[in-house]
Amino acid sequence: MTVTIPRITLNNGVTIPQLGLGVFQTPDGEATASAVDAALEAGYRHIDTAMIYGNEDSVGEGIRRSSVPRREVFLTTKLWNADIRAHRTREAFLASLDRLGTDYVDLYLIHWPVDGWQQAWEEMVRLYEEHSVRAVGVSNFKRHHLEELMALGSTAPAVDQVESSPSFSNRRLIDHVRSLGIVAEAWSPLGGTGGMLLSDPRLAAIARAHGVSPAQVVIRWHLQHGVVVIPKSVHADRIRQNIDVFGFELSDGEMAAIDAMDTGVRTGADPDHVDF
Ligand code: A2P
In angstroms, what CA-CA distances link 246 with 39, 104, 230? Predict the structure, then answer.
């Protein structure tokens, strides 16, 4: 049985599946290729990678191995900080395409707002205008970064991908992003690799009430907030479980209870202090 995943329309008319497979910390090689293949066979149509994850080759391999045509897959990759600082946007993009074994990506993101991101954005917009990318966006942009970007008067970003999970909901930023007509995507949506979020008893109680897992509850919480969610797993059974989230609904009270788990503490870097 394959699942049909709802799509959200970006501000340029392109649609993005609201649930995708993230591959941060999925090891390059067979682990990534088989996770991507398993995801596509289960019904995923959205894969999110980045140059710095070091697995673009294997993402491409997984897509080719699957029975799903490339044009049916929404593929995201990201421009790394060193390439932004060195003004190597176009070269970095072409190298990503080469590793992925494709001639376009669906979404190209500035990974972090490091020095030089404004020039990088102009070059990304050129790639968009040349139809090498179907949409351009940013990641880890706070409100003030978005304001500076919008003031450039150039193409608006389609997406801002930011850290968000029940323990760091980032809700004010996400609400602001969405108020600008920009789609918010959540990274580390399950609290990240090695995180303790999924063993929280509050999630376990809600999960029991619905006969699902804590991971499914958290994914459902993101979806009901209108956020695009890209959980990572290297296990085919979990990959399948993580899209089996359209047969139940969290009540307003359950959503509020999960919202109340917010600690305000990030697991990742503060975008205003990027030293990598
Ligand atoms: P694994 O890859 O071993 O399955 P995030 O998406 O926030 O980065 O979180 C990914 C973490 O959550 C990984 O450690 C992943 O482990 C784990 N994970 C993913 N899906 C599930 C699931 N359905 N149940 C339990 N753990 C999961």
Answer: 16, 30, 15
The architecture in CATH of the region 16-195+226-233 reads Alpha-Beta Barrel (3.20)
Nearest CA to ligand 1 atom 11: 193
104 is catalytic: no
Residue located nearest, by CA, to atom 9 of ligand 1: 192
Rounded CA separation 219/221 (Å): 5
Is 75 in contact with 100 (CB distance < 8 Å)? yes
Candidate list 53, 104, 108, 128, residue with the active-site label: 53
- Return the ligand 1 atom nearest residue 165 CA: 7
Cβ distance 108 to 127 under 8 Å?
yes
Tokens of 118: 């404004």
pLDDT, tens digit only, all 276 positions of the chain: 578 899 999 999 999 999 999 999 999 999 999 999 999 999 999 999 999 999 999 999 999 999 999 999 999 999 999 999 999 999 999 999 999 999 999 999 999 999 999 999 999 999 999 999 999 999 999 999 999 999 999 999 999 999 999 999 999 999 999 999 999 999 999 999 999 999 999 999 999 999 999 999 999 999 999 999 999 999 999 999 999 999 999 999 999 999 999 999 999 999 999 999
* Atom 16 of ligand 1: nearest residue by CA position: 233
* Contacts for 246 with CB less than 8 Å, ≥ 6 apart: 3
Nearest to 216 by CA among 234, 236, 235, 240: 240
Cα of 124 from ligand 1 centre, angstroms: 32
Domain boundaries, the chain: 16-195+226-233
Compute the distance between CA of residue 190 and CA of residue 27 in angstroms, rounded to an integer.
18
